[in-house]
Amino acid sequence: MAESINHELIQSLTERFGEKIIGVSEPYGLLTFETQKDIIVSVLEFLKTNTVADFNFLTDITAVHYPEKKHGIAVVYHLHSMVKKVRIRVKVFIDEHNPTIPTLTGLWNAANWMERETYDLFGVKFEGHPDLRRILNMDELGVHPMLKQYPLEDPNRVDKKDEYFGR
Amino acid sequence: MFYIMSNINIVDAPPGIEGSGFFATSMDKVIGLARSHSLWPLPFATSCCGIEFMATMGSHYDFGRFGSERLSFSPRQADLLMVMGTIAKKMSPVLKQVYLQMAEPRWVMAVGACASSGGIFDTYSVLQGIDEIIPVDVYVPGCPPRPEAILDGFGKIQELVRNESGRRRNSDQYKEMLASYGIE
Known about the structure:
The complex is a heterodimer. By secondary structure, chain A is of the alpha/beta class. Helix content of chain A is about 25%, strand content about 25%. Chain A has helices at about 1-15, 40-50, 110-120; strands at about 20-25, 30-35, 55-65, 75-80, 85-95, 100, 125. In chain A, the strands form two sheets. In chain A, strands 1-2-5-4-3 form a five-stranded mixed beta sheet. In chain A, strands 6-7 form a two-stranded parallel sheet. The radius of gyration of chain A is 18 Å and the shape is elongated. The model of chain B has no long low-confidence stretch (mean pLDDT about 90).
């Protein structure tokens, strides 16, 4: 059943948005596609209100950092249809040096904290967000720690000598 | 009942000069003796080490035997800060404020790997040992330490309390140590 819905979904999406729906795949049956940041809000609004599946639940907003790519930050949206028991994943690749994307808080209030978390960890600036400040890390941290240029380990740690770890 | 009464241990008197009708010793020793057997701990429990502390407080290990039956959940009445668990960097100003609110003399015990060194959480968001922000008297190793280890650490604290000079907290060395943590 999920496959027929996926097929229907991608058909109505390409009808509505045409060339701007790219990279369609279905890993483990989860419909995944890429789109662009100028239409992301209308794509998700379309998925929420106008399609067969009624994606009424925003599961997650997060990001992935690909330092080697030209548009190095992928903002990833997961939606869930409570009615049809089907999920969908939408990705938007944005510029690492100017990571801005419109906010989703107008569609789902749940987007508020998810976007704050994504801003905290990846530095993605959600334009139009009512209160975009750090949510998990301390305010003085100064960096967005999930970006790959920052080391995971705390530099203050003095007891972890490389020789103990064979490096 | 008589059996129980005869089983009560009374702490030995500190060394001093004894004669008929008098006993002379130093003030430090008397105060140290009394303090070491009535420490009020403030449990700052943030994770699994805190669960071990709960076991330590329970009837089987019975922390109260050492004069610490009464936990203080107000730092203003506590003598001993027991930090048990991972301290995130976001939490560190809270921990420091708790320490600052304690009245002198105060002691600090770092229980477990996380409080002592950050433990397995060698990452950007976790404080790599509470001694980055407040002075620590005793470290208890373990992940988490068993109640016996916590009791042993507490015994070390008692030893420090018993032998502390009454002037230590006014000494320049102590003030310098506090100043190195940014505490006036």
